[in-house]
Each structure stands twice: as structure tokens, then as C-alpha cells.
Write a structure and sequence with these properties.
It is a single chain. The chain is an alpha/beta fold and 232 residues long. The protein contains five helices and 13 strands. The protein has a six-stranded mixed β-sheet with strand order 4-5-6-7-9-8. Strands 3-2-1-12-13 form a five-stranded mixed β-sheet, with helices on one face. The protein is globular.
């Protein structure tokens, strides 16, 4: 039977607007109608816009209707303070959530050694983080990504770790894909505000595009296919 893991990202939930909260609620409803029901839901960071406790509490309320365990990653806006990284298993899939946030900064950092310690040989694995470990070609975004030496170290680790089927991230406010060390890397669009696809502008520009979620489907064959599902 196909095993589904859903992914939401970058709600940037605010208490003082009329968009971010209903946008997250609509994304949650899109997950709830998936069949079969997902065994886990990943939320890959920037859950709260300012990082306030009130924003995080409201986000938990909006995510509560989900019927599957929710696993969150720390984004640069979340301001969680303590490290937020862990590994869990859901229906035979190992999920390793890395913390790439740096307190008070927008760029990221990945502890590749910690990640390597969490991998189990032969166990299908998804690695989740906020900052993607690949270049986007968008100047404003690549300036606040992961350092080159960490991307290269992860590339080496993934090349030696065939059990890692996908690395999933947020931060981009767009769906995108590449490979690193022979492993697929995908980013999830935001539940609310999308980034314009302009490779020349130095700063982020907003796009009038619909939000979407990602649906990672582990097939009986052992293959993992990722679908982009628009949110109505």
C-alpha cells in the first residue's frame, strides 16, 4: 500500500493580518482529503512570522485538525531558541528533522555530523530542514542559504547513504527540485505568500500565484515520488 507523507511550509503566521491564518487552514484541509491518509505531516519552518509564542500557539491550533502526527522544522523566523532537531519513524519511514536556523539571522547552518549519526542503514529515510542544501539561482535567496562547505559535506553523505530517498526543505516560497549526491532535493511552496521567479532581482518580490503543498508517496516498489498539490 502506498504510504503518504504530506509537507507544508512557510505559513509565516501572523496575528495582525487576514491572510496567513485562513491560508494555513486551507492547506490543512487539503491534507485532510488526501487518500490514503498521510502517516505524517511535515511543516518545514517559518511557521511563525515574528517567532512569538502567540503565533506558534495559534499555528498549533490550526494544525490540530490533522489526523496524522505533525513534525515541524525550525525556520529563520521561528526564533525557537533551543535546538529543534530529532528523528522519528512513521509507517516504516525514518524522518530526520534538522535544525538549520541560526538565532537572529536569516542564513542557515547544517550539522552534517549530527545528521549522519541519525541515519539507519537500509531504512527508507526522508531528511527535512528549512534551508535547502542546493543553490536556487535567486540572488536574494542564495545569500541566506547554507554555506558551500556544508552543502558539499551533505553531498558526500548522501552519496554514501542510498537509504535517504529525499531531502525536503522550505525557505524558497516556491516548489523547486534538484539532486545532491544522487538524492532528490525538493522545496515546498509557502501556504500563503509566494516568491516571484525572477533570477535578476536582488530582493524578494512577491508573486500572485496559488499556494501548494507537497505529497511524498512511498510506493510498494520502494520508489518515492513527490507530487505538487495546489491548495484550492
Amino acid at each position: 500500500m502506498t504510504t503518504l507523507i504530506a509537507q507544508l511550509s512557510d505559513p509565516h503566521l501572523r496575528m495582525d493580518d487576514e491572510a496567513s491564518q485562513p491560508a494555513l487552514a486551507r492547506a490543512v484541509e487539503q491534507v485532510r482529503v488526501l487518500r490514503p491518509a498521510p502517516v505524517a505531516v511535515l511543516v518545514t519552518g517559518d511557521i511563525a512570522n515574528s517567532g512569538s509564542a502567540e503565533e506558534h500557539a495559534r499555528a498549533r491550533e490550526l494544525l490540530a485538525p490533522l489526523d496524522a502526527p505533525v513534525y515541524t522544522a525550525a525556520g529563520n523566523h521561528d526564533r525557537l531558541g533551543a535546538r529543534h532537531e530529532y528523528a522519528v519513524e512513521a509507517a516504516g519511514v525514518r524522518i530526520v528533522v534538522c535544525d538549520t536556523s541560526i538565532d537572529g539571522r536569516d542564513n542557515g547552518s547544517l550539522d552534517v555530523g549530527w545528521l549522519e549519526d541519525q541515519l539507519e542503514p537500509g531504512v527508507p529515510t526522508i531528511v527535512a530542514m528549512h534551508h535547502p542544501p542546493i543553490l536556487m539561482g535567486l540572488p536574494w535567496l542564495d545569500e541566506i542559504g547554507l554555506p558551500a562547505e556544508q552543502r558539499e559535506a551533505l553531498e558526500d553523505l548522501l552519496a554514501r547513504s542510498p537509504q535517504v530517498l529525499r531531502v525536503v526543505a522550505g525557505h524558497v516560497h516556491r516548489a523547486s527540485a534538484n539532486t545532491l549526491g544522487g538524492c532528490g532535493v525538493v522545496t515546498c511552496a509557502a501556504t500563503n505568500i509566494q516568491a516571484e521567479l525572477d533570477f535578476s532581482v536582488p530582493d524578494m518580490a512577491l508573486a500572485n500565484e496559488p499556494p501548494s503543498i507537497l505529497v511524498h508517496a512511498l510506493l510498494d516498489s520502494g520508489d518515492l515520488i513527490t507530487h505538487v498539490q495546489p491548495v484550492a
